[in-house]
Write a structure and sequence with these properties.
Pfam families: BPD_transp_1. This protein is an all-alpha fold. It is built from twelve helices and no strands.
Length: 281
C-alpha cells in the first residue's frame, strides 16, 4: 500500500511534467525544425539551426557572455568570501541583521534596481558627481562594459554570499581551536580547514551567480545600452523581434547544455550533487 507521502507527490510530478518537461520538449522540437508550416502540417527536420550558431558572430556573443559571467562571478566571490567570514565572526543577532541587510535589495523588483543603477551611473548621477569632486569631468559609466558587469555583480551578489555564509557557519569552531593548539597559523587554517569545508558553498554560490549572469539580457540592454549584446539578448531577439523560434530554440538548447556541463564539473569538484536550495538552509 502506498504511503501518504507518495500520494501527495503526484501533484508535484504533474506540475513538473506540464510546466517543465513539456515546454522543454517543445523547445527541443522547435530547434530541429526549419520554416515549419503548421497549418499545412509540413515539418522539415534539420541541423541547420545548430550549424548557424557556429557563425563567428554568434560565437563571439557566446564567448563575451561567458567572459562577463566569469568576471562577475569572480568579483562576487572575492567580495562574498571575506564578507562571509566577517559575518560569521559576529554575534548571532548581528549576523541575522547583516544577512537581512544583504537580502533587502532583493525585495525590490529586478527591473527597478537596474533602472536605479542607470540613474547612478549616468553623467548627472551621484557617481559622476563624486568623480567630479575628485577633479574628473564628464565621467559616465553608463552604457559601458563595466556597467554591465557591475549590474551583474549587484543583482546576483546575494546568491554568492548566502551559500558561502551558510557553509562557513557550519564549520565547527572546535576544529579551528584544535588547529590553533597544534600550531597552525591563520593562513594554514584558512587553506586546510575553511576552504575545504566551505567548498560546497563556494561552488554552489558560483553556479548560482554564473547561470543567471551568462543568460541575462535585461542588464546588458539597460546598462549596456544594447552596445554589448550577449547570448541572452540574441535569444530574446530571435523569439520576440525576428520571430525565428527555431534558431532561438537551438541557441537555448546549446546554452542549457553548456550550463549542464558546468554543473557536472561542479559536481565532480565537490564530490557530491549540488543542492543549491539546501545550501541556504
Amino acid at each position: 500500500m502506498k504511503s501518504f507521502k507518495e500520494y501527495i507527490a503526484y501533484p508535484y510530478g504533474l506540475w513538473m511534467l506540464i510546466f517543465i518537461a513539456v515546454p522543454l520538449l517543445v523547445v527541443i522540437w522547435f530547434s530541429f525544425l526549419s520554416n515549419p508550416d503548421f497549418k499545412a502540417g509540413i515539418y522539415t527536420f534539420t541541423l541547420e539551426n545548430y550549424q548557424q550558431l557556429m557563425d563567428p558572430v554568434y560565437l563571439e556573443l557566446l564567448c563575451r557572455s561567458f567572459l562577463y559571467a566569469v568576471i562577475a562571478t569572480l568579483i562576487c566571490f572575492l567580495i562574498a568570501y571575506p564578507l562571509g567570514n566577517l559575518i560569521v565572526s559576529l554575534p548571532g543577532h548581528r549576523q541575522n541583521m547583516m544577512i537581512v541587510l544583504m537580502i533587502i535589495p532583493m525585495w525590490v523588483n529586478f527591473l527597478l534596481r537596474t533602472y536605479a543603477w542607470m540613474v547612478l551611473l549616468s553623467g548627472s548621477g551621484l557617481i559622476s558627481q563624486f568623480f567630479g569632486l575628485l577633479g574628473f569631468r564628464d565621467v559616465s559609466l553608463l552604457y559601458t562594459q563595466s556597467a554591465v558587469i557591475l549590474g551583474m555583480v549587484y543583482n546576483f551578489f546575494p546568491y554568492m554570499l548566502l551559500p558561502i555564509y551558510t557553509s562557513l557557519k557550519k564549520i565547527d569552531p572546535d576544529l579551528l581551536r584544535a588547529a590553533t593548539d597544534l600550531g597552525a597559523n591563520h593562513f594554514q587554517m584558512f587553506l586546510k580547514i575553511k576552504v575545504p569545508l566551505s567548498l560546497p558553498g563556494i561552488v554552489s554560490g558560483c553556479m548560482m551567480v554564473f547561470m543567471p549572469a551568462v543568460s541575462t539580457f535585461v542588464i546588458s540592454n539597460l546598462l549596456g545600452g544594447g552596445k554589448y549584446m550577449l547570448i541572452g539578448n540574441l535569444i530574446e531577439q530571435q523569439f520576440l523581434t525576428l520571430n525565428n523560434w527555431n534558431f532561438g530554440s537551438a541557441i537555448s538548447m546549446v546554452l542549457m547544455t553548456i550550463i549542464f556541463l558546468v554543473l557536472g564539473i561542479a559536481r565532480l569538484i565537490t564530490g557530491k550533487e549540488l543542492d543549491t536550495g539546501g545550501q541556504l538552509l
